[in-house]
Amino acid sequence: MPEITNPERILRVEDLHEDARLDEYLRLSEAHLRMRTDVENGLYIAESTTVVNRAINAGHVPRSFLLAEKHLGQLTEEFERFPEAPIFIGDDQQLQDLVGFHLHRGAMASMNRPAPLDLSEVLTASSRIAILEDVADHTNLGAIMRSASGLGVDAVLITPKCVDPWYRRSARVSMGTVFDLPWVRLNSWPEDIQILKEHGYTMLAMELTEDAVPLNAVEITQAKKFAMVLGNEGRGVAEQTLALVDQAVMIPMHREVSSLNVGAASAIAFWHLCSAPRN
């Protein structure tokens, strides 16, 4: 066992109801129960040692840790930074009984949610924005966030009905990049498009419409600010949104393939948006 300053904080999981702090991990596989309660309780669950590490390095504060004893050595430094956070350990079967699935990615942590970012401050500090309209799949959201972070998007805005970027599956698929990339949940959509326009953003929407132009036909210049709307997996970008943006864009396809899924399309869109030099 690695050297931990206060070994008394290491608590073995035996009775699933022995400590109320374990309630935050109970039945995590029941996604429909977690999507709203995490937000309401001011917490989220970071899954995997990589995600836990990135969340902490981004300044987020853990309430507790949960992991198999064999993985204790992977987070010793993080444990020492937060000596008040209990460390729950158990064998694979005990942890599976607790969370509802096989925990094979090292560790979990229950994390306090930081205060939301200010929309106006984010828009002022940025010049390339992605807007995710009602994205419903956590895996898609995580993949989009990873592409946005890696390809140079400054910030991401999500609509009121979009899934949570800090939900454990989204964060895991993003490889923890959701903690490095500024994001804000909008209050009113598509009305908030007016706020972006007031901040000088040219509004683009990725959607196959009659007036859509090829993405590479849009000249991306250093002097302009751009925001790209990506729509729901099923219906795409809503008609009300399309009526308010400056231009619909599309990715030209071959061999009678109609379109790419939102994750793949987002990577192409972000590369085009961010390829021009910026100050």
What would your notes on this structure say?
With 279 residues, the chain is an alpha/beta fold. The chain has two domains: 7-112, 60s Ribosomal Protein L30, Chain: A; 119-274, Alpha/beta knot, CATH 3.40.1280.10. It has helices at residues 31-40, 49-57, 76-81, 92-99, 119-125, 138-151, 168-173, 193-198, 239-242, 262-274, and strands at residues 10-12, 43-47, 62-68, 87-90, 107-112, 128-132, 155-158, 183-185, 201-206, 213-214, 225-230, 247-250. The strands form two sheets. It has a seven-stranded parallel sheet, sandwiched between helices. Helix 6 links the parallel strand 6 and strand 7 (155-158). The longest helix has 14 residues, at 138-151. The radius of gyration is 21 Å and the shape is elongated.
